[in-house]
Amino acid sequence: IMKEESNMLYDALTEAGPFERFWDLRREFDRLFDEAIPASRRGPHNEFVPALDADEDEEGLTLHMEVPGVAPDNLEVSVNGRVLSISGERSTQRSEDSKLHRSERVFGKFSRSIELPDNYDLDAIQASHDSGVLTLRVPRSAAAKPRTIAIESR
Questions:
Q1: Average pLDDT, the chain
Q2: d(Cα 150, Cα 135) in Å, to the nearest integer?
Q3: How much is the CA Rg of the chain, to the nearest whole Å?
Q4: Are the C-beta atoms of 12 and 5 separated by less than 8 Å?
Q5: Mean pLDDT, range 22-48, rounded to an integer
Q6: CA atoms within 13 A on the CB side of 106
Q7: Burial of 90 from C-beta contacts in 10 A (0-12 / 13-18 / 19+)
Q8: pLDDT beyond 80 at 144
Q9: Cα(29)–Cα(10) distance, integer angstroms
Q10: Cα-based torsion angle of the residue sequence 14, 18, 21, 23 in order, rounded to the nearest 10 degrees
Q11: C-alpha closest to that of 41 among 67, 64, 62, 63
C-alpha cells in the first residue's frame, strides 16, 4: 500500500465528523477506566484472561469459559489433586508484513485454576466446546448427592 493510501485509510478510520469532541471525551474516559480497572478480558499486563462463570445444581458444577478464537486443540483441561486447571492460547491471525492501524483484541497464553471441594467427582469431568465457549461439567460424587432413605416398616 502506498503511503498516501495508508494515510487515507488511517484518516477514514479515525474521522468522526462533527462529533469529534464527543469521541475525544469518550476515548479519554475509556483511557481513565482502562488504567483504573482492567477490562474483563485483560489481565494487569494486557494479557488474555477468559471470563468464567460457575453454576451449581444438585447434580454438580457447570463451568462456562469464553474462549472466542481459541480452537479446542489449543485448550487443555487437567486435574491435579483437587485443582482443576484450564489453559490455552489465543493467537493473532494478522500477517507479520501487514501494517497495524488499530488493535483492541488481546492475544496470548492463559491459565485458570480452581480448587474444588471434596464433594465433586473429578474423574468424571466432561468437556465440550461450542461457538467459542468451553463448558465443563463436574458431577457431584455419589456420596455428596442428596438421597432419600427408605423407611422399613416392621
A1: 80
A2: 36
A3: 23
A4: no
A5: 62
A6: 16
A7: buried
A8: no
A9: 22
A10: -40
A11: 67
Tell me the per-residue pLDDT of 36-46, one tens digit each, with 9 for 90 and over.
554 545 555 56
* % of the chain beyond a pLDDT of 70: 73
**55-90 confidence digits (pLDDT tens):** 999 899 999 999 998 999 999 999 999 999 999 998
Q: How far apart are CA 133 and CA 51, in angstroms?
A: 10
DSSP the chain: --HHHHHHHHHHHH--GGGHHHHHHHHHHHHHHHHHS--TTB-TTS-B---EEEEE-SSEEEEEEE-TT--GGGEEEEEETTEEEEEEEE-----TTSPPS------EEEEEEEEPPTTB-GGG-EEEEETTEEEEEEEBPGGGS--PPP----
Residue labelled with grid coordinates 483511557: 31
User: Cα 102 to the chain's mean position, in Å?
Assistant: 21
pLDDT at 141 over 70: yes
Please give the single-letter amino acid code of residue 26: R
**pLDDT score of 85:** 94
Query: Residue 99: is it exposed, middle or buried by C-beta count within 10 angstroms (0-12/13-18/19+)?
Result: exposed
